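Dear colleague,

Following up on yesterday's call, I've attached the two folding results inline so they're easy to grep. Please treat them as preliminary; we haven't cross-checked anything against experimental data yet. The first protein's sequence and structure tokens come first.
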Amino acid sequence: MSKPKFLYDSRLSDATPVASSTAAGDYNVLNLRDWRPYTWWKPSAMPATVTVDCGSAKAADYALVYGHDLATKAAMIEIRGSTDNFGASDVLVASSTPASDAPLLLGWASVSYRYWRARVTGAAAPSLAIVASGAALEAPVYLDGSFSPIDRRVEGQTNRSENGHPLGRVVYFESWKEMVTLRNVSWTWARDTLVPAWKAHLRGSPFGFIWESALYPGDVLLVQSADRLGIPHRAGALCDVEMELEGVIQ
């Protein structure tokens, strides 16, 4: 089992990423780091790479690929690290050939490199909306037992006859909304780790959330937080953390 993780840190945000090629149209490589699932990067030639120079060695232990057609295009994605801009040093950190176009989460023991690269291979060029690879923020405790990871709500239009009989429903999408409650965490973690992450990213931008990456990596969601971060006090040097998250089931 694993504790919940907030996925927002990304090496692609450390400097301007450089693509080996880009297809014509609105496929700017910067789209990979804007956390929008409706803007894409697509290469014009395969294999293709996106490389970033972080300026100094930076750690990563996960990669999230969201909004992609890797499976449809029978393509593979690799995460690579290097100490010399992929000269003599070119280390394969993780790779996957997805079986579906669902959100993809990869994890590994933390490693640090100055240069990071995402590489895609295959016969046909895929489109990728979000690629984030960095250091996951892992909660220090497991989730409260009331948490429901796969609840969902249908967003659409329900149709009935003039006599009230059900005629079916037009489904637009399925939404997910849950209160994430972390009980009995230290004030040190809440003040020195969570609140800075909240200010830097979690309060204003989408991010990835996974409640159990070891058993259910496919449950990763692109979410946003509500307006309130609750941190009620407990006796001693402990507190609770309450954060409401919402997203879309893919």
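Below is the second protein, in the same order (sequence, then structure):
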Amino acid sequence: MIYIVTPVFNRKEFTKNYLLALQKQTDQNFKVIIVDDGSTDGTSTMIEEEFPEVILLKENGDLWWAEATNIGVRYAIKNNADYIMTLNDDTIPQKDYMENMIKWSRKKPLVLLGAFAIDALTNKPVFGGEVLNWKTGNYENILDKLTFNEQVGLHEVNVFPGRGLLIPVKVFQDIGFYDSKNFPQTVADLDFTCRAYSVGYKIYCNYDAKIGIYTEESGGVALVKNKSFKNYYNHLFGMRGGGNLKWFTVFTFKNAPKQLMVSYLLKGLAVRIFGYPIKWLVGK
């Protein structure tokens, strides 16, 4: 059995549309766990009244993505899950999304499968997986290398975000849960897949399994798009900061190859510290 684990907080309409999309899946061989971390906008009440099939876990509002996800994962494993899927409430899975995830999981039962993301408003491809090049410090976009006809099936990567990731329970048993102590919000998903990859688990982006995403919804995107001194500070040090220096440094020491650790760290710090103001100055 697959358990889909989704933390939510005060995004009732996104959560509702997301759950409606899951109700329309052509393959219903899954259960949904919503971890509501103290929403005050009626999210839990809406779920209880309109989606009684959903497993609702209510928390107190002191969690972030990683530990909220861990709570859902632990519940799923306790209830005999075979696979965990981490999926965000600001996504719209296409009708055959779970069907195509399940199809490929049967062919490759001990791999991690990520989703092919398209823009929910335009249907244009947005994310098709990346390969982290430790030597250059760059994330190489797989999508850029594929023709339209090649955008099918599985394409191997070495990291993947938690947005639509199907994970065999055995992975959690082998490497543990998300590192919520070091990475309470962002980076936890990348750290998890790096750890899985390092012990031999293969990771693929499943181009047959599509989810729609709202590209402007990420807090980190807003910090970069709306440039200010406050947002620059939050970008480097905030809980939603995509360039959080502390988390990047810890991620590097945990996962980078020893011979490339110093160069990767220095390049990454430089990009995070100087990239934001440079783009600000040139108006990007």
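For the second protein, one point worth flagging: The chain has two domains: 2-215, 220-282.

Best wishes,
A.L.
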